[in-house]
Amino acid sequence: MKKFLLCSLLFLLMQILIIPNVLAKQANYEADKDALLNSGLHMGENQLDLYWFEKGEKLFEIAEFEKAIDAYTKALAINENYTDAYFKRAEANLELKNYELAKEDYSHTLETRSTYLEAYFKRAVCSYYLKEYQNAIDDSSVVITLNPEHGGSYLIKAVCQQRLNQPDDAIITYQTLLKQVPKNQKQIIQTAKDMLKRLGIGPEK
Predict the structure, then answer these.
(1) Which of 52, 132, 134, 164 is a plausible cystine mate for 75, CB 3.0–4.6 Å?
(2) 173: Cβ–Cβ under 8 A, 6 or more apart, which residues?
(3) Full-model pTM
(4) Helix boundaries (H) for 18-132
């Protein structure tokens, strides 16, 4: 029953993330730079990395995630410091459930944007699916510190605490969520209430 409840909670997060059931392989474009620059596009490096990034964006919008990954990777072959390309490639890999690859690119993103909350949150999601529960708790805690109203981070943190057999900590996390998260996050709030009830604890008054 406990396992079923945790799976139900994660189903909520899956709905939020809208992750399809597809697998993908990521191509290696280390040698692509010269070939791209010598192509018929006749663009300079700065224009060409933007060209591939924007192409990736269009492909991402129509759920062509494998092709989007290829485009973002080409942008990074030209400009290895392209933070937005790392983040969006991570997003595409997360959609394809390539959690290890997605986590790596979220980490690259955070190397230059250390307060990027969405990258911390999504890396926490990846860590959960990789069964790296403490890492997920750590990243969720960073998000909560920087934005105490981020409901999804409380849920990830609490479910990981349950996975680590820390029910008392999970209860505190759910109760804190109910105090801090705005009322318009109705689904997240109701989930926290349901989990507390099933843990035998009513919400604090």
Answers:
(1) 52
(2) 154, 157, 158, 161
(3) 0.79
(4) 32-37, 45-61, 65-78, 83-95, 99-112, 117-129
CB atoms within 10 A of CB 39: 11
* Cβ–Cβ < 8 Å for 109, 131: no
Neighbours of 172 (CB within 10 A): 15
In whole angstroms, give the CA distance from residue 4 to residue 49: 45
Helix axes 151-163, 167-180, angle to 10 degrees: 170
Question: Is the C-alpha dihedral spanning 148, 20, 49, 111 positive or negative?
Answer: positive
Can you read off the two tokens belonging to residue 189?
A: 């709030």
Which residues of the chain have a pLDDT value below 50?
17-42
Q: Which residues contact 108 (CB under 8 A, 6 or more apart)?
A: 83, 86, 90
Task: Answer whether 73's CB lies under 8 Å from 104's CB.
Answer: no
Distance in angstroms between the alpha carbons of the first and the last residue of the chain: 28
Which helix (H) or strand (E) is 42 found in, with range?
Answer: none
How many residues make up the chain in this entry?
205
What is residue 21's predicted lDDT score, i.e. its pLDDT?
35
Structure confidence at residue 197 (pLDDT): 93
89 closest CA partner among 72, 67, 114, 74: 72
Question: CA–CA separation, 136 vs 128, rounded Å?
Answer: 6
Res 38: pLDDT: 47
